[in-house]
Write a structure and sequence with these properties.
By secondary structure, the chain is α+β, with helices and mostly antiparallel strands. 23% of the residues lie in helices and 29% in strands. The protein has 6 helices and 25 strands. The longest helix has 57 residues. It is globular.
Length: 387
């Protein structure tokens, strides 16, 4: 898997340029990678122990590597030397746990950041020249530390697009984002969101998803759960070979337009994902579905299309590019309540008027009966006097 958002940062005094990947999830089977940044140092070059630490910055072809030179940095502080971890029988990672100044550009103020300065990395997992860890809940993230050290006005960040390249937007004015509903992440160590619905075309896919959350990662392609890919194979069998991952008669994945869109529902948003976002052309020019063995995964393109805003300090997300779900507002509820009260007062007024009119009628009737009785009594008296 390839990390897609890379940028030059500068480390130490004097400043050393280092291309780094900004990642949203842990790429290593290593607990410390949840909360740590990694940089490859010059010992990798001297001893050729980091053969997978190749640079793809500015060019997809292998080019000159950028290794950090610990000895040149006057600001480097060593916390623990010779940190070693066996990843499996054949893979190992070794380095020094250190702290140094990081500069997001040459003119920025320094941010003190801890990282593993790696000198031996034998695993086959590609991690570029190193990575800055933006995993949810990582208090050692560069934007949280920049904010806590009063170097940034906010820890919030957002991936954007500059011509054809992804870029990071930072130093947000928090008040400018209040128009977008906020969603808390489901987990404390992942950028994941609880789904309230999942629809493919007009078909409810919640039962097929198994996992009720989707995870946001900085990989190129989004990934579809296996069960949904199998559903597609059964429903659109004319486009599939024996495998549910490989499509036929679909040169350049042009058949993607024949599939319905996937709609992801959360408590606050409806997110529209064309099926082509899960397709890619392999080395044999075959169209394939990018498969996830667990959750629905959002790749970098979905992050860009939806303009996702990340708040690592609070574990919160916003989706400016997605359609917002409609909820009755407090103002609307107040209007309904006021209108209800007006109708209630009107009805009570009618009842009161009716009751008063009824009482007046009863009173007048009683007066009439009294007058009638008095008249009859006078008539009787007059007749008696005549006798």
């Amino acid at each position: 898997m390839v990390f897609t958002c890379m940028s030059n940062v500068y480390i130490g005094i004097p400043k050393q340029k280092q291309p780094m990947s900004f990642i949203l999830s842990n790429p290593l089977s290593l607990p410390i990678a949840d909360t740590m940044n990694f940089v490859f140092n010059t010992e990798c070059s001297l001893q050729n122990k980091c053969k997978y630490a190749s640079s793809e910055f500015e060019n997809p072809q292998p080019q000159q590597l950028h290794f950090f030179n610990e000895k040149l940095s006057l600001s480097l502080q060593t916390i623990q030397k010779n940190y070693t971890k066996d990843l499996d029988e054949y893979s190992v990672i070794q380095g020094n746990l250190v702290s140094d100044n990081f500069y997001l550009s040459q003119d920025d103020s320094p941010i003190q950041l801890e990282f593993i300065s790696v000198y031996n990395f034998t695993t086959t997992q590609y991690v570029g020249n190193g990575f800055i860890n933006l995993v949810n809940g990582n208090q050692n993230g560069i934007f949280i530390q920049g904010y806590l050290q009063n170097k940034l006005i906010s820890p919030i960040f957002q991936f954007g697009v500059d011509i054809f390249n992804a870029k990071l937007l930072i130093d947000y004015n928090i008040t400018s984002n209040t128009i977008y509903p906020i969603i808390k992440t489901y987990s404390t160590n992942k950028w994941d969101v609880q789904m309230t619905g999942l629809v493919l075309g007009d078909m409810d896919m919640v039962a097929y998803a198994h996992y009720q959350t989707f995870i946001i990662q900085t990989y190129v392609y989004s990934a579809l759960p296996i069960s949904i890919a199998k559903y597609l194979k059964n429903k659109y069998s004319q486009y599939f070979s024996d495998s549910y991952t490989t499509l036929i008669n679909c040169f350049g994945c042009e058949c993607a337009s024949q599939f319905p869109n996937l709609y992801v529902y959360t408590s606050e948003y409806r997110i529209n994902i064309p099926l082509e976002e899960f397709l890619f052309t392999n080395t044999n020019n075959q169209c394939q579905i990018n498969i996830s063995s667990s959750n629905l995964l959002f790749g970098i393109r979905q992050i860009l299309f939806n303009g996702v805003i990340f708040n690592p300090l609070q574990g919160e997300l916003q989706f400016p590019g997605a359609k917002q779900m409609l909820h009755p507002s407090i103002t609307l509820l107040q209007i309904i309540f006021i209108q209800s009260n007006i109708w209630l007062i009107f009805i009570l007024g009618l009842l009161f008027k009716y009751e008063r009119n009824s009482l007046d009628l009863i009173f007048e009737t009683e007066q009439y009966i009294d007058k009638k009785n008095n008249y009859l009594q006078l008539v009787r008296i007059a007749k008696q006097q005549q006798k």
